[in-house]
Design a protein that fits this description.
The protein is globular and about 100 Å long. The protein folds into six domains: 6-106, Zinc finger, CHC2-typedomain (DNA Primase, Chain A, Alpha-Beta Complex), CATH 3.90.580.10; 110-230, Alpha-Beta Complex (DNA primase DNAg catalytic core, N-terminal domain); 246-368, Dna Topoisomerase Vi A Subunit, Chain: A, domain 2 (3-Layer(aba) Sandwich); 374-438, no CATH class; 469-571, no CATH class; 576-624. It is of the alpha+beta class. It has 28 helices and 16 strands. The two termini are 56 Å apart. Helix content is 52%, strand content 10%. One of its GO terms (cellular component) is cytoplasm. Monomer. Interacts with DnaB. InterPro entries: DNA_helicase_N/primase_C, DNA_primase_core_N_sf, DNA_primase_DnaG, DNA_primase_Znf_CHC2, DnaG_bac, DNAG_N, DnaG_primase, TOPRIM_DnaG_bac. Residues 257-338 form the Toprim domain.
């Protein structure tokens, strides 16, 4: 029995604006009629993820992922159809009368989520309900974490026992699950808990499922060297990918497309106390490209708030290089403090003000970070100018450049304003020369692997050339570099336009239904046409959503590229006749090319009779063209 019939499904999807749905997870910007963002399904720095609000689908021109609202939820959250259906209904505010899905069947890793969730529950109970927990809660209170914060972040306590968790969970889970969970160590045929006598911070994925833990020592007599111990890597936990608090921060991040990056749990909690919710932490590990690519899906601007010590400043330096200067600002914590310490010293209100108002640009950070320790050394000053001058020269504002030059002069004891300005001016010339040699001022830019579109010439279809295959080819291929497709020939553009008309105009499809001689030039379009014919015969028309669901990934990608074409709603017999004429002409040219090859072969073999026969055929073929 079907979960939901086609009419109910289409009605549900009609009540959801796919742009609003996807904007929860991807930062989208208006791009003509559609919306554009960084693809959440593959790493990229230039947007190629296209969302068509009018037709209710998405398509990535980079990796080819395509689909409707249901498909997006399935792909993004890695869930089955039923769970995606329920989530879409919840988003639309509609109650569906279907059974909840068996998540164990939908997600093979669900059993690992379950064991981690149960471990988090046990740790939390120990913190909140035992004598040892009372001491640990007092420790947390002294650190500024009260019971309300303990509950919000589900903080727990691992008791000072070697196998408490194992004894509690082993009756409920198979040995294989226990071994893969990262919660236990195995040695000499004995099993030990991975965490003991530690404050436990559950690590959740962006959907709130517990995937691992970080344990902090809290007692003065604890002689263990590491302040924090993280879960080992498992099928559901990778510390180079996961970010703490992302599930709670995601709604605010999705709304304003900005995120604060901090180092640890206590810093995030301090920011929350200050009313700043769009904060995540990399849990003590260095920021990775995986972290950045994950956040780029919904973030346009990164605010780095790392510790004020030398390690924190080095982390900022690496993070700027990883993210890129254009997308970053930095909050420098005074007095070498971290955010948690600053909140304790000056209060939550002051921390909130600092995070919002005391941001600096990367160049300001580098002026301080790269400043020589020995300013009496002339060569060190020269090297410093050589490092900073190109950065100043790349700043667009002359006023800002002047301010940065003055800042350098204040630092350097042996240089005057005009000397530093000359160094920057030299770099300005280099910037200008490089810019002009790369992209001429009045010339369009085309990437090396794409040739410039051909000039538009009038043709027999339209005196202005606006409907010609050449114009269509230019319009189709000359998109922003981020949206460039593999270059389409003019005949491929014609084929795609004809299929588009067949999809949305049943009369056009019927015109070719019984034409045994009609066929497309390229096999992939012919295969799509054949499937369209089967769909139309089976359902008396084409429902794009249903049709797409029946295609494999490669053909689905082609289908969504075609229906994304920006064509007028109206179609005329003349337009279809012109498209068919172009197909026929191309087929004749293809046949002519084959005859010319045969003529060359006959000539080489000395077959004069065959040469004469082919010559006559070629003359007749040219007349048809």
């Amino acid at each position: 029995m079907a979960l939901i019939n086609v009419d109910e499904l289409n009605d549900l999807k009609s009540k959801v604006n796919i742009v609003d749905l996807i904007s929860q997870y991807v930062a989208l910007s208006k791009n003509g009629k559609n919306y554009l963002g960084l693809c959440p399904f593959h790493g990229e720095k230039t947007p190629s993820f296209n969302v068509n609000a009018e037709k209710g689908f998405y398509h990535c021109f980079g990796c080819g992922k395509s689909g409707d609202a249901i498909e997006f939820i399935k792909e993004y959250k890695q869930v089955g159809f039923k769970d995606a259906l329920l989530e879409l209904a919840e988003f639309a505010g509609i109650q569906l009368n279907i059974e909840q899905s068996n998540t164990h069947q939908d997600n093979p890793n669900q059993i690992l989520f379950d064991i981690n969730n149960q471990a988090a529950r046990l740790y939390h109970i120990i913190l909140m309900s035992t004598e040892l927990g009372t001491s640990a809660r007092q420790y947390l209170l002294e650190r500024g974490i009260d019971e309300e914060l303990i509950k919000r972040f589900n903080i727990g306590l691992a008791p000072d026992e070697t196998d408490f968790l194992y004894r509690s969970l082993s009756p409920k889970f198979e040995e294989k699950v226990m071994a893969n969970s990262g919660l236990f160590h195995f040695s000499n045929q004995k099993t030990f808990d991975a965490f003991s006598n530690r404050i436990m911070f559950p690590i959740t994925n962006e959907y709130g499922q517990t995937i691992g833990f970080s344990g902090r020592k809290w007692q003065e007599n604890d002689l263990s060297k590491a302040k924090y111990i993280n879960s080992t890597q498992t099928p559901v936990f990778d510390k180079s990918y996961e970010l703490w608090n992302l599930d709670k921060a995601k709604p605010t991040i999705s709304k304003n497309h900005e995120v604060y990056l901090m180092e640890g749990f206590m810093d995030v909690i301090a920011a929350f106390k200050a009313g700043v919710n769009n904060v995540v932490a990399s849990m003590g590990t260095a920021l990775t490209e995986k972290h950045v690519n994950r956040l780029r899906q919904s973030v346009k601007h990164f605010v780095l708030v790392y510790d004020g010590d030398s390690a924190g400043q080095n982390a900022i330096n690496k993070a700027i290089k990883l993210i890129g200067e254009d997308s970053v600002s930095i909050v420098k914590i005074p007095e070498g403090l971290d955010p948690d310490e600053y909140e304790k010293h000056y209060g939550a209100v002051e921390l909130a003000r600092l995070l919002q108002e005391n941001r600096i640009q990367p160049i300001e950070f580098f002026i301080d970070f790269l400043k020589p320790s020995n300013l009496s050394h002339l060569q060190a000053q020269i090297d410093f100018i050589d490092q900073i001058a190109p950065m100043i020269a790349s700043v667009q504002s002359i006023t800002a450049q002047d301010a940065f030059i003055r800042k350098l002069v204040e630092i350097l004891p042996d240089f005057e304003y005009n000397q530093v300005e000359n160094a920057v001016n030299l770099r300005r010339e280099n910037v200008r020369d490089n810019s002009q040699s790369t992209v001429p001022f009045n010339e369009p830019y085309y990437p090396d692997d794409f040739s410039a579109p051909p000039a538009v010439e009038p043709n027999e279809f339209n005196q202005t050339g606006m409907d010609s295959p050449q114009f269509l080819e230019r319009k189709f291929n000359q998109k922003e570099p981020s949206l460039l497709l593999p270059k389409r020939s003019s005949i491929e553009i014609v084929e795609e336009q004809l299929i588009h008309r067949m999809i949305y105009h049943n009369a056009v499809l019927k015109r070719f239904a019984n034409d045994q001689e009609f066929h497309f030039v390229h096999q992939n379009y012919q295969a799509l046409f054949d499937k369209l014919m089967i769909e139309a015969m089976s359902f008396d028309g084409i429902d794009p959503n249903h049709f797409a669901s029946e295609l494999d990934s490669e053909m689905k990608s082609l289908f969504y590229e075609i229906i994304d074409l920006d064509l007028p709603d109206e179609v005329s017999p003349r337009e279809i006749n012109d498209l068919v004429a172009q197909l026929s002409k191309n087929q004749l040219k293809t046949e002519l090319g084959e005859l010319l090859k045969q003529l060359e072969t006959a000539h080489k073999s000395g077959n004069a009779e065959r040469e004469l026969e082919l010559t006559v055929q070629i003359i007749n073929q040219k007349k048809k063209i």
